[in-house]
Specification:
globular; single chain; eight-stranded mixed sheet; 21 strands; 2 domains; disordered N terminus; four-stranded antiparallel sheet; 440 residues; Alkaline Phosphatase, subunit A; alpha/beta
């Protein structure tokens, strides 16, 4: 038995926890089968497998609209859908391209209460290492937020300004340079793991969030279940062991949870959804190929696209955009699986700033280059953002620790149940959560 789970295996019970310390780690893009079928897939991941043997786990987690990193991570922390928390995508909608590919980095954009707040209410101090949508979060006592601009060394200065004062300097004195925010490699994860483990050891926060991006990065580049992705996951598994050992040393009674934000699917085709909107006069480009004016524009979401209208209540514009989308769907080359309108977006919990949502068939993704052919080989080998109902988009939930009231296979669960469950583990609650906690 791994030492960090020895206590957890002995103390799993069926009574609610009372203000238990909690470590929450996200492995971006971790599919449930990567853990549950590790032996068949030839994966050596003993730390993650131990959750299955001695803790509790979901056979799959049904995610949100869209199945992207930032909306999903916000739901994991709030227990509400993007329609409520307001994080609609990874990047902010920027039709003129003036925000230099800005992401939803800022906690001010999250309209819902988070687990950081719930932990404070339960009397626990908090810490964060690289979790999405964490810049400026008021209820994080020790914050290394996720943000980047260019990867230039000036980004290090920016992070020092936005992190908890003195936190980076104090940790770097012993550990060397902290990974750049733009670094999504497994080596970047290793750096953040070292910093998180030291933060846990020295400051002993009661609730810690840690985000690891390397698996997702490799799955985009090489594809899910590729040799490269499997090697990345095996390295990340060792990081889970290090983080868990640090947490158990700081808090022998701690609960540890591992989550992911979405599944993954192989892709081979890019669909240039922008070109038909240009041809229809809904987007106008300048001589350099940049958007100069727009009435309707697709917003990249991986295996899907939100369709944004400049005048969302203009019935004539709605009809024109709908007619274009229907024509595109009728063309098999466009690989469009489904088009949903604003009422259906709302029903599925999506942020309703979009007037339509286009889902591509598995294997196709929205291309990002307006000058590319209508259909071309994909730049990525793997993608998410497809419909949440697809099994390929299922994500992961694992948990172990004393008194969690959960054990074994929890079946398929809704992502919105995770945050209220974790709030209860900490002896707190999330009164705004859309679903009940797991278990009793």
């Amino acid at each position: 038995m791994l030492p960090w789970l020895a206590l957890a295996g002995a103390l799993i019970a069926t009574v609610p926890a009372m203000a238990a310390p909690l470590l929450l780690v996200s492995i971006d893009g971790l599919r449930p089968g990567d853990v549950l079928e590790a032996d068949r897939r030839g994966l050596r991941i003993p730390n993650l497998r131990r959750f299955v043997a001695e803790g509790a786990y979901a056979s799959g987690v049904t995610g949100v609209l869209p199945t992207l990193t930032y909306p999903s991570h916000t739901t994991l922390l709030t227990g509400v859908s993007p329609a409520r928390h307001g994080i609609a995508n990874n990047t902010t909608f920027d039709p003129a391209g003036i925000n230099q590919v800005g992401w939803y980095w800022y906690a001010a954009d999250d309209r819902a209460e988070t687990l950081w707040t719930a932990a404070h209410r339960a009397g626990l101090s908090t810490a964060n290492v690289h979790w999405p949508v964490s810049v400026g979060a008021a209820d994080i006592d020790n914050n290394l937020p996720q943000i980047w601009r260019t990867g230039h060394d000036d980004d290090r200065k920016l992070l020092r300004v936005l992190a908890t004062p003195e936190l980076i300097d104090g940790l770097e004195r012993d550990l060397g340079p902290y990974a750049q925010g733009i670094d999504e490699s497994v080596d970047g994860d290793a750096s953040r793991t070292r910093f998180a483990a030291r933060l846990i050891a020295t400051r002993k926060p009661g609730f810690v969030t840690v985000y690891l991006a390397g698996l997702d990065h490799i799955e985009h580049v090489a594809g899910p279940e590729s040799a490269e992705a499997n090697a990345a996951l095996e390295r990340i598994d060792a990081m889970i062991g290090s983080l868990a050992e640090a947490e158990r040393t700081a808090h022998p009674d701690a609960v540890i949870a591992v989550v992911s934000d979405h599944g993954f699917a192989s892709v081979d085709t890019d669909i240039n959804l922008i070109r038909p909107f240009v041809a229809a006069g809904l987007i106008r480009l300048d001589a350099a190929g940049r958007v100069s004016e727009w009435e309707a524009e697709p917003w990249f979401a991986g295996g899907s696209a939100a369709i944004m209208l400049a005048r969302p209540d203009d019935t004539a514009l709605i009809a024109k955009a709908r007619a274009l989308l229907d024509r595109l769907k009728a063309d098999p080359a466009m690989r469009i699986a489904e088009i949903i309108d604003r009422p259906e977006i709302a029903r599925r919990g999506g942020a309703t700033a979009a007037s339509f949502f286009v889902y591509f068939q598995l294997g196709a993704e929205m291309g990002r280059d307006p000058a590319a052919p209508l259909v071309s080989p994909s730049k990525s080998k793997g993608m998410h953002g497809f419909a949440a109902a697809l099994p390929e988009m299922r994500s992961t939930f694992l948990i172990a620790g004393p008194n969690i009231g959960l054990h074994g296979n929890l079946g398929e669960i809704d992502m919105r149940r995770i945050a209220p469950t974790l709030a209860r583990v900490m002896g707190g609650n999330l009164p705004g959560a859309e679903m009940q906690p797991l278990g009793r």
